[in-house]
Specification:
Layout (H helix, E strand, L loop, with lengths): L1 H25 L12 H27 L6 H17 L3 H14 L5 H16 L3 H14 L4 H16 L3 H14 L6 H14 L3 H14 L6 H14 L3 H14 L8
Helix pairs in contact: 1-2, 2-3, 2-4, 3-4, 4-5, 5-6, 5-7, 6-7, 7-8, 8-9, 9-10, 10-11, 11-12
């Protein structure tokens, strides 16, 4: 019985792939329509996108998911292929739906947090929606707290909160990151965000002390010159020209080729 079901899915998948190829080929000129094209032609091609091309492509990953956990990699390939089509058509909702389908279908596997992080990354980067990114990363951390994706998500929450000028929250979560993950490549970045959040909150002396600690403790880090630069910028803002000069000279001496020095 299971074998017959698999054979049926295989046949349906072959049909779907052929149909998708022919459908995309038939409507591949829709991106070439000029702005002054007729309303009818534009409507027809947009209708083809929403009612033919995307549903056919979606059928592909739905069939792959019917195979179960044994063929999870095939489902990933099918979803990623569908997302490529959806992104070409700038259909954000279709991308999210596909990724959320992977999360729901494989909720107890490593795939679920991976695809949740992808959604968060799209909100944060491509779609410039840091608040939605924070929501998604937080959902990932709540549901899959022991995964490497949760660690990465926490660092991204900190960066999003800082971008949103929610400095209290950025400082709080940066501190949490440093407690939960006291080692790793992202640690210095979290220390830097915490120090800059302190400055934004009016804690200038604390911020300067932590920036100096970063510069001394992480001399080989690419963020060490930025810490020195931020000390100089703070001193300059306080009209402490001697202190600013010392900080900038220290930066130029230690890291003359760094972007901060330039």
């Amino acid at each position: 019985e299971a074998s017959r079901d698999t054979n049926l899915i295989d046949r349906l998948h072959d049909i779907q792939q052929a149909l998708q190829h022919e459908t995309i080929r038939a409507f591949s000129n829709y991106k070439l329509i000029e702005k002054d094209a007729s309303r009818l032609e534009f409507y027809y091609d947009r209708k083809a996108e929403t009612e033919i091309i995307l549903p056919v492509a979606k059928w592909g990953y739905q069939l792959a998911m019917l195979r179960g956990n044994a063929d999870m990699e095939l489902a990933k390939q099918a979803v990623d292929g569908f997302v490529g089509v959806a992104e070409l058509m700038s259909n954000r909702e279709a991308v999210i739906e596909a990724y959320e389908s992977m999360v729901a279908r494989y909720e107890n596997s490593e795939v679920a947090p991976e695809y949740l992080e992808r959604i968060g990354d799209l909100y944060r980067g491509t779609w410039k929606a840091p608040s939605k990114a924070v929501e998604t990363y937080s959902r990932l951390r709540d549901r899959y707290p022991s995964t490497e994706n949760a660690r990465s998500a926490l660092s991204k929450v900190v960066l999003c909160l800082f971008e949103l000028e929610r400095y209290d929250d950025a400082h709080l979560f940066a501190q949490q990151y440093m407690v939960d993950y006291p080692t790793g490549s992202e640690l210095v970045g979290m220390e830097l965000v915490a120090a800059l959040s302190e400055r934004a909150l009016g804690l200038g002396e604390e911020s300067e002390a932590h920036l100096r600690e970063i510069a001394e403790k992480h001399r080989l880090s690419p963020l060490a010159p930025e810490a020195l630069y931020q000390i100089g910028a703070y001193k300059l803002g306080q009209q402490d020209y001697i202190g600013a000069t010392e900080a900038f000279e220290d930066l130029l001496e230690r890291y003359p080729e760094s972007d901060s020095a330039k």
